[in-house]
Amino acid sequence: MSSLAVTFVTSDRTVWSGSASQVVVPAADGSMGILPRMQPTLAILDRGVVRIHDESGQVTEREVAGGFVSVDADVVTIAVDRAARRDPAER
Predict the structure, then answer these.
(1) Taking every annotated instance into account, which residue ranges of this chain make up the domain ATP synthase F1 complex delta/epsilon subunit N-terminal (predicted)?
(2) If both were cysteines, with which of 8, 76, 86, 90 could 15 make a disulfide (CB 3.0 to 4.6 Å apart)?
(3) Right CATH number for 4-85 from 1.10.10.10, 2.60.15.10, 3.30.420.40, 1.10.3720.10?
Protein backbone atom coordinates (compact mmCIF):
# COMPACT_ATOMS: atom_id res chain seq x y z
CA MET A 1 0.00 0.00 0.00
CA SER A 2 1.28 3.46 -0.87
CA SER A 3 1.60 6.26 1.62
CA LEU A 4 2.00 10.01 1.59
CA ALA A 5 5.12 11.79 2.85
CA VAL A 6 3.58 14.74 4.71
CA THR A 7 5.20 17.89 6.01
CA PHE A 8 2.90 20.35 7.82
CA VAL A 9 4.59 23.62 8.80
CA THR A 10 3.85 27.07 10.18
CA SER A 11 6.12 30.08 9.82
CA ASP A 12 8.08 29.08 12.94
CA ARG A 13 7.84 25.29 13.40
CA THR A 14 7.03 21.89 11.97
CA VAL A 15 3.57 20.84 13.16
CA TRP A 16 3.65 17.29 11.82
CA SER A 17 5.96 15.28 9.60
CA GLY A 18 5.77 11.64 8.62
CA SER A 19 3.92 9.04 6.56
CA ALA A 20 0.16 9.18 6.24
CA SER A 21 -2.55 7.18 4.53
CA GLN A 22 -4.82 10.18 3.98
CA VAL A 23 -4.93 13.96 4.47
CA VAL A 24 -8.00 16.22 4.44
CA VAL A 25 -7.59 19.99 4.06
CA PRO A 26 -10.04 22.94 3.94
CA ALA A 27 -9.38 24.15 0.39
CA ALA A 28 -10.82 27.53 -0.59
CA ASP A 29 -13.42 25.84 -2.83
CA GLY A 30 -14.34 23.05 -0.38
CA SER A 31 -12.90 20.17 1.61
CA MET A 32 -10.22 18.25 -0.28
CA GLY A 33 -9.17 14.68 0.46
CA ILE A 34 -5.66 13.64 -0.52
CA LEU A 35 -4.79 9.99 -1.11
CA PRO A 36 -1.68 8.30 -2.53
CA ARG A 37 -1.18 8.56 -6.30
CA MET A 38 -3.19 11.80 -6.52
CA GLN A 39 -2.60 14.14 -9.45
CA PRO A 40 -0.17 16.99 -8.71
CA THR A 41 -2.16 19.80 -7.10
CA LEU A 42 -1.62 23.22 -5.57
CA ALA A 43 -4.53 24.68 -3.59
CA ILE A 44 -5.17 27.69 -1.38
CA LEU A 45 -6.52 26.81 2.08
CA ASP A 46 -9.42 28.50 3.84
CA ARG A 47 -10.43 28.51 7.51
CA GLY A 48 -11.08 24.99 8.78
CA VAL A 49 -9.46 21.80 10.03
CA VAL A 50 -6.51 19.88 8.60
CA ARG A 51 -6.81 16.15 9.36
CA ILE A 52 -3.86 13.82 8.92
CA HIS A 53 -4.52 10.07 9.16
CA ASP A 54 -1.20 8.36 9.88
CA GLU A 55 -0.50 4.78 8.85
CA SER A 56 -1.44 3.39 12.28
CA GLY A 57 -4.90 4.98 12.14
CA GLN A 58 -4.18 7.90 14.50
CA VAL A 59 -5.70 11.22 13.40
CA THR A 60 -4.05 14.58 14.02
CA GLU A 61 -6.30 17.64 13.71
CA ARG A 62 -5.33 21.32 13.65
CA GLU A 63 -7.43 24.44 13.09
CA VAL A 64 -6.01 26.66 10.35
CA ALA A 65 -7.06 29.97 8.81
CA GLY A 66 -5.44 29.97 5.39
CA GLY A 67 -2.25 28.86 3.71
CA PHE A 68 -1.63 26.39 0.90
CA VAL A 69 -1.19 22.70 0.17
CA SER A 70 1.03 21.19 -2.50
CA VAL A 71 0.75 17.58 -3.67
CA ASP A 72 3.30 16.02 -6.04
CA ALA A 73 4.36 12.37 -6.37
CA ASP A 74 2.91 11.38 -2.97
CA VAL A 75 4.69 14.28 -1.24
CA VAL A 76 2.29 16.60 0.57
CA THR A 77 3.39 19.98 1.90
CA ILE A 78 0.98 22.03 4.00
CA ALA A 79 2.08 25.57 4.90
CA VAL A 80 0.02 27.87 7.12
CA ASP A 81 0.59 30.91 9.35
CA ARG A 82 -0.83 29.23 12.47
CA ALA A 83 -2.09 25.78 13.40
CA ALA A 84 -4.02 25.49 16.66
CA ARG A 85 -4.84 22.24 18.43
CA ARG A 86 -8.48 21.33 18.05
CA ASP A 87 -10.57 21.25 21.24
CA PRO A 88 -11.70 17.61 21.74
CA ALA A 89 -15.09 18.87 22.98
CA GLU A 90 -15.82 20.29 19.49
CA ARG A 91 -15.90 16.88 17.77
Answers:
(1) 5-83
(2) 8
(3) 2.60.15.10
Q: What pTM was computed for the model?
A: 0.91
Distance between CA atoms of 67 and 60, rounded to whole angstroms? 18
Q: Between the CA atoms of 38, 70, 56 and 87, what dihedral angle is there, to the nearest 10 degrees? A: -130
Amino acid identity of residue 65, one-letter, is A
* Domain regions of the chain by residue span: 4-85
Q: Using CA atoms, how far apart are residues 15 and 24, in angstroms rounded to an integer?
A: 15
